[in-house]
Every structure is written in structure tokens, then in C-alpha cells.
Task: inverse folding
């Protein structure tokens, strides 16, 4: 028994740990939610991780993203996450893509090579393309719904997209998934009504306000997602 994952093996067993070691998981979006997904999967012994994100660490990420430190500002989030994984488990095979997943970049990825897909990206178009591509390849996928403008980490639930409520992003996804004939989709979402930010962010754009976020809400969503991925992969 490897000392690195000895405590995990005590709970999951040797066979399950071997499955995780042989597994390859792609995480799309390595921010507030996705960063914690990556961290938990690496610490659970997943043998190969593909990290997809084109963003760099910013000072405004320091309040909530596990990869965000003063020393990592300006670096690609995927590169920072890879360095963390290598420091946790040097045997993990990590592939990074400095790209945003959008319908225009979907052709870059062969989803049939993955054992599981995690969607932690922000755009509805990207999420829908990702779900359709994953399901076409027969690869399990789990999606993160909205974690911004929330304050209660206990309100997260795991459900099929058609059983969700309250979450504005889940409402849009339900509608769009139904239009596209998506019959089922596993998601993590919050039943907490969105909190209205106290004031507009200095980073707001003409099109939308930047949502408020905390250290203790996106992290919980990410850890729940990672737990679901592990449970599904070990059966």
C-alpha cells in the first residue's frame, strides 16, 4: 500500500484504488470550483488528469481559488494546478490545455479517451457543447451550476438537471438541454436564492456584473463534484 494514499485505501479498498490509478479525468475550468475538483482528484489517487482553461491567476482570485497565491498571479491556472498535482503525486499524468472550451474549440478534444468529464466552466454555450460531446462519446459527465452570489454552502445538492430548482443557471440549462434532446444530466446546484451583491464590482462590464463569491461556497461545490466522480468511477 502506497503511503500517499494509504488512508484512502483503508476506506475504498485496493481494487478501487487501482481503478482510480488507471482512470483519466478531464476537468474543464480550473477556477473557484474546478480548482478544488482537481485538488481532490489528485489527492484521491486519480492517475491522469487533463486540465482545460485559458485564464491566468488574478489578484481577485485570491479570496476563493485554491491555486491563487501572490506567487502565482499572472500564471496560467492550468500550469499552477499541474505544479500542485506534481507536488502531491509525481506519478500522476497531467496534460494541460491553454484554451477555453467553446463550440469553436470542441474539435480539439476526443472525449472517448476520458473516463469522466467535469464541467466547471462559465458559459452556457460551452456547457451545452461539452455535455453533447461527452454524451455522444458515452463518457460520464457532471456539471457545476451557479456558485456565484451564494453564501450558504449547505444548500448544494446533487441531482438530475430536470429535478433542479431555484438556480438561474440550472433553469437555463434545463430549457436548453430539453431543446437538444438531452435526457439526463448529473449536476451539482444550490437551492439558495442568489444574493444580490452589495455594490457593483469595479470589474463589471457593459454586458453583466461580475458575481460576488466567497472562499467557502465554490470550494464546497468542487469537493462535492470530486466526491461524485470518485464514487461513480469505483462503482
Result:
Amino acid at each position: 500500500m502506497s503511503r500517499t494514499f494509504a488512508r484512502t485505501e483503508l476506506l475504498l479498498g485496493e481494487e478501487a484504488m487501482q481503478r482510480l490509478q488507471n482512470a483519466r479525468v478531464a476537468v474543464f475550468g480550473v477556477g473557484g470550483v474546478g480548482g478544488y475538483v482537481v485538488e481532490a482528484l489528485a489527492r484521491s489517487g486519480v492517475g491522469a488528469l487533463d486540465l482545460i482553461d485559458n485564464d491566468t491567476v488574478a489578484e481577485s482570485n485570491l479570496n476563493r481559488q485554491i491555486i491563487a497565491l501572490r506567487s502565482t498571479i499572472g500564471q496560467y491556472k492550468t500550469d499552477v494546478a499541474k505544479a500542485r498535482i506534481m507536488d502531491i503525486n509525481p506519478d500522476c499524468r497531467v496534460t494541460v490545455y491553454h484554451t477555453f472550451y467553446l463550440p469553436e474549440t470542441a474539435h480539439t478534444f476526443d472525449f472517448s479517451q476520458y473516463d469522466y468529464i467535469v464541467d466547471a466552466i462559465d458559459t452556457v454555450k460551452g456547457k451545452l457543447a461539452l455535455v453533447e460531446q461527452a454524451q455522444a462519446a458515452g463518457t460520464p459527465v457532471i456539471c457545476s451550476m451557479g456558485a456565484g452570489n451564494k453564501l450558504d454552502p449547505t444548500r448544494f445538492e446533487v441531482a438530475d438537471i430536470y429535478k433542479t430548482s431555484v438556480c438561474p443557471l440550472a433553469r437555463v440549462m434545463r430549457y436548453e438541454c430539453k431543446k437538444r434532446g438531452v435526457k439526463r444530466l448529473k449536476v451539482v446546484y444550490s437551492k439558495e436564492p442568489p444574493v444580490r451583491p452589495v455594490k457593483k464590482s469595479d470589474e463589471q462590464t457593459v454586458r453583466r456584473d461580475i458575481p460576488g463569491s466567497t472562499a467557502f461556497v465554490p470550494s464546497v461545490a468542487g469537493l462535492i463534484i470530486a466526491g461524485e466522480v470518485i464514487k461513480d468511477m469505483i462503482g
